[in-house]
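Follow-up to my post from last week.
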Amino acid sequence: MVERLTISRRLFIGFNYIFLALLSILCILPLVHVLAVSFSSSSAAAAGYVKLWPVEFTLESYKYVLGKEEFFESILMTIKRVAVGLTVNMVLTILVAYPLSKEVNKFRGRTIYAWVFVFTMLFNGGLIPLYMMVKYTGILDSVWALVLPQAVPIFNMILLLNFFRGLPKELEEAAFMDGAGHWTTLWKVYVPLSAPALATITLFTMVFHWNSWFDGLIFMNSPHNYPLQSYLQTVVIQQNFTSASLETIAELSKISDRTFKSAQIFLGSLPILLVYPFLQRFFMKGIVLGSVKE
Amino acid sequence: MLNKVTEDRIAIVESAAKPAKKRAWKFQLPLHLMILPGLLLILVYSYGPMLGAIIAFQDFNPARGIFDSEWSGLDNIRYVMALPGSFQIIWNTLIIAVMKIVVGLIVPIVVALMLNEVRKELFKRTVQTLVYLPHFLSWIILGGVLIDILSPSYGIVNQMLNWFGIDSIYFLGSNDWFRPVLVTSDVWKEFGFNTIVYLAALTGINPTLYEAAVIDGANRWKQTLYVTLPGMAPIIILTATLALGQVLNAGFDQVYNLYSPQVYETGDIIDTFVYRIGIVDAQYGVATAVGLFKSVVSLILLSTSYFLAYRFANYRIF
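User reply:
Got it. Predicted complex:
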C-alpha cells in the first residue's frame, strides 16, 4: 500500500521514533548507571561523579564481592535450588498437564482434579499456615523448602495443558491403535512434539527460581543457607535502613558501600542478562501458547 | 450355518461389552497415577495451609500447637480492627493497587499503538527488547537500583534535579512521593511485557479492514480510532476484568524492598503488615486472621473477575 505522506504525518512519524527511542533508553539507563558505578573507584562513586561511564575504572568492588564466602555459599544454594526446582517443576507440570488435557469422557474425574488444582490459584491459606506446614513436614532450612511448596506451577501447567490440547487427536489415536498405553504416548508422542512449549516453560521456571527471595528469607533459619537473591536482600536492601553492625562498618570503610552494592546488583542479574536473548525468543511463543484453545 | 456364525459373533461382542467399563478403568489408571504426586504435594502445601488457617480463630500458641490452643472466636479480627491505622493499611493497599492497574493498563496500550506505526522492523525489535528487560529482573535487583538512583545524597535523579535548580527530594522517605514512586517503578518493570501482549493482539487484526477504511477515506488517525482500537478491545477488556482480582495485591515484593518506617503511613499494605505482625512480632493468630481476611475477599474478587472475563471476553482458563 503506497501512501502519500502529508506534513503532519511526517511530523508524527518523526515524533514517534524520537519518543520510542527515548522511552527505551530511559528503561535501561538506571541499569547502565549502576553498572558504571560498580566499575568506578569508591571515592568517585561516593562523591556522585559517575554518570553513565565508570570514573577511575577499577575492579576493586568485584574483587571484594567475589572474595566473600557468603556470596559463594549463596550462589551454590541458588544453583542447587534451580537444579532441583527445575527438575521437580518440569516433571510434575508434564505429569499433571497430560491427564488434565484429556476430555472428560476419556478420563473420568478430570473435572474434579482440574478444580482441585485451579482452586489453589484462587485461594491460599496465607503466610503463617504455610510456614507451619513447611515446619511440620521437616523441610525447614533445606532446599526442599524452596521447591516443594510450589512443586506444581499451576500457570505453567495450564499453558502446557492448552498446548497438549492443540496437538492433533489422530496422533494419540494412532499410538493407542499400535498398542501404546498412556505412559508411552506421553513420553514418546506428546513430550517430543511439545519441545517449544517445554523450552518456554523451562526458561520461565529457571528465571522464577533464580529470582525468588522471600521463601529463602523465611524458610531458612541459617543465613548460610540463603539463596543468592535472599542474601542480596539482606546486604543490598536491608542494610540501607537498619543500622549496620560495627564489623560491617569497618569492612565497608575500606570500600565504598555504593560500588560494593552496585557490583552485587550487577552480578545478581548477570545470569538473567545472559539468558535474556533466549527468553526473548521464546517469549512471544509463550504468549501465543496460552491462547491456543479449543 | 451362517446363522450360527453370526450368533457366535454376537455372543463374543456381548461378552466383550460387559467388562468394557472395567477395561476402560484399567486403561485410565495411568492417568490417575500421573496426577498423584502433584496432587499429594498440593494437598499438603496448598490445602494443608488452608486448613491450618483456622488458627485465625485461636489464641495460637506454638508450644501447644494447633489442636490444643485456646479458641478465641473473632478476637483476632477485633484486635486488628481496634489498632489505629488498620483502615489506613486497607486504603493504602487499594489505592496503590488501583493506581498501578490504571496506569499499567493505559501505558502499554499507548506504547503498543505507537510501536504499531513503526515500519522499520529493526527499530521495532530493538525497542521491544529494551523495554521488557526489567520484567525479568527481581525486585531485589530493581529495588537496589532504585535505592541507588533515588538516594538524596548521591542519587543521579536528585543530581539532575539539582542541575535544574530543584532541591533534592528523599523519594523513598517521603509520604508525598512514596506512592508515585511505587506506581512509576512498577510500570517501568511491567509495561514492556504488556506492550508485547497488545502488539500480538494487533497482528491478529484483519488487514482488509484497513483497506476498507482507506477506501472510505479514513486517515491514519481515523484508522487507529475505528479499526485498531476496536481490534484491541477484547484483550483490553480481558486485562481490565482480570485486574479486578488483583485490587488487594499492591505488590509485596516491591513494597517490602522499598519501604521504611518513615513511609508506613502511605506505603504499608496488607501483605507487609501480615509479614511484620506474623514473622517479626510472632503474633501468629492475628497475622493469619488478617491473611485469611485478604484471601477470602480475594477469592470473591477473583471469582467475579473470571466470571466477567468469561462473560464479556469469552475467556476460559483452560
